[in-house]
Amino acid sequence: MEHLLSLLVIVPLVGALVVLLTPNTYAYLYKNIALFSTLLLLALSLYAVYHFNTADAGAFIETSSLQYVEKMEWFRLNLGGLGVIAIDYFVGVDGLNITMVLLSAIVLCIGVLASWNTVEKVKAYFGLYLLLSASVMGCFIALDFFLFYLFFEFMLLPMYFLIGIWGGPRKEYAAIKFFLYTLVGSLFILIVMIGLNQSVYDPIKTAELAGLSTEISIAEVQEQVALGEIAKEQLVKTFHMIFMVDPNNYVPGSLLDRANVSLWMGHPLRSVAFLALFIGFAIKLPAVPFHTWLPDAHVEAPTAISVVLAGILLKIGGYGLIRTAYAIFPDAAFHHGWLIGFLGILAILYGAMNALAQKDLKRLIAYSSVSHMGFVLLGLASMTTEGVSGAIYQMFSHGLIASLLFLLAGVLYDRTGNRYIENYSGLAGIMPVFSIFVGVAFFASLGLPGFSGFIAELFVLIGAFSSASEIGAIPSWMAIVGALGLVLAAAYYLWTFQRMFMGAFWVKEKKWLPSLKDLTIREYLMFVPLIVLIVVFGIFPNLLFQLINHSVDVFVNHLTLWK
Amino acid sequence: MRLQSGKQLMETLNGIQENLVYLLPEMVLVLGIIFLIAFDLVFDRKKSVGLAAIAFFTLVFVVFWLVFSFPIQQQPVQLMNGLLQTSPQTAVLKLIFTVSGVVILFMASRSEVFKKLFFQSSEVPIAVLGLLLGVFLMTMSIHWLMVYIAIELVSISSYLLVGLSPGKKNAEAGMKYLLYGGAASAVMLFGMSWLYGLTGTLHFYSDTFLAGIQAADPLVMATAFILLLFGVLFKLGAFPMHTWAPDVYEVAPIPIVALFAVVPKVAALFLLWQISDIDRAITGAWEQWVSVLAIGGMILGNFGAIWQRNAKRMLAYSSIAHAAFLLSALLLGELAYQVLFFYVMVYALMTLAAFFLIQIFEQRLNALRFESFHGLGKPFPYLSILLLVVMLALIGLPPTAGFNAKFYLFAGLWNTYESSGQEVVLWVLISGVANTVVALFYYLKLPYLLFFKTTSVEVNKVMVNKVKRDCLFGTLIVIPLLLIFFRSDALVDLLNNVNFTF
Question: C-alpha dihedral over A9, A15, A18, A20, to 10 degrees?
Answer without folding.
Answer: -90
